[in-house]
Amino acid sequence: MIEADLAANLEQVRDEIAAAAHKSGRSAGDVELVAVSKTHDADAVRKLVDAGQTLFGESRVQEAKVKVPLLPSHLRWHFIGHLQKNKVRHALPIFELLHSIDSFELAEQVDRIAAEEGIFPRVLVEINVSGEGSKHGLKVTEMTKSLERILELPRLSVEGLMTIAPLGPEAEESRPHFRGLRELRDRLAQELGVKLPQLSMGMSNDFLVAIEEGATLVRVGTKLFGAR
Ligand SMILES: *Cc1c(COP(=O)(O)O)cnc(C)c1O
Q1: Is the dihedral of CA 45, 47, 48, 50 positive or negative?
Q2: Whole-angstrom distance, CA of residue 57 vs CA of residue 64
Q3: Separation of 36 CA from ligand 1 center, angstroms?
Q4: What is the pLDDT of residue 2?
Q5: Which parts of the chain sit beneath pLDDT 50?
Q6: Assessment of whether the complete model's pTM goes beyond 0.85
Q7: Cα angle vertex 109, ends 144, 123, to 5°?
Q8: Is residue 101 helix, strand or coil?
Q9: What distance in angstroms lies between residue 220's CA and the mean position of ligand 1's atoms?
Q10: Which phi and psi (to 5°) does residue 138 adopt?
Q11: Fewest C-beta in 10 Å: which of 25, 128, 168, 226?
Q12: 122: Cβ below 6 Å to ligand 1?
């Protein structure tokens, strides 16, 4: 019974989120679960909707354009993948939050199209905390300058930072990266005099550690939907 499984997965992940939040002195409501539905079809998403989930994450604009119209309109969608500049115009009407602004040039493009459309998109800036060359995101060393320029863009509402930790066998290996993102956020918020309340970090294998280090958004796919 797949239905029962997805509902049970959701209940378990929610329980674990609540436990990790309490352990770190926060309440379950301080952490939002983004159910990452990439590669899973609308029927699978509907099963989680029936179990009470309303927030979903997608990493391809093309896939979301097909899937989202098949599902109830009260659902909320976050974009979590690498956003190509030529997809921004299609992405903006679908997603309430873009997690993955990974260059000044992309931020500029989002700002330009938002001005044309008369909207103020909510975004997070993706940081490559580990410095791995294969990862998207701003390097920590170039961060302050880039973020300063992004904050000057009039249409963007920059709400915080996002990172993807290197995939290791142990969740604990992600902890220094998550802690690094939180410390970077604290420093930038102070230096630039801005509030950056959102920290998007943690996936199926390490979301508990991420919550302990201050995550406000966790992006969980496999633990909800099964293997892709
Ligand atoms: C796919 C993806 C996730 C979810 O990964 P799981 O390991 O399946 O939980 C989270 N964040 C990003 C950016 C992703 O691309």
Answers
A1: positive
A2: 9
A3: 6
A4: 47
A5: 1-2
A6: yes
A7: 55
A8: strand
A9: 6
A10: -75, 140
A11: 25
A12: no
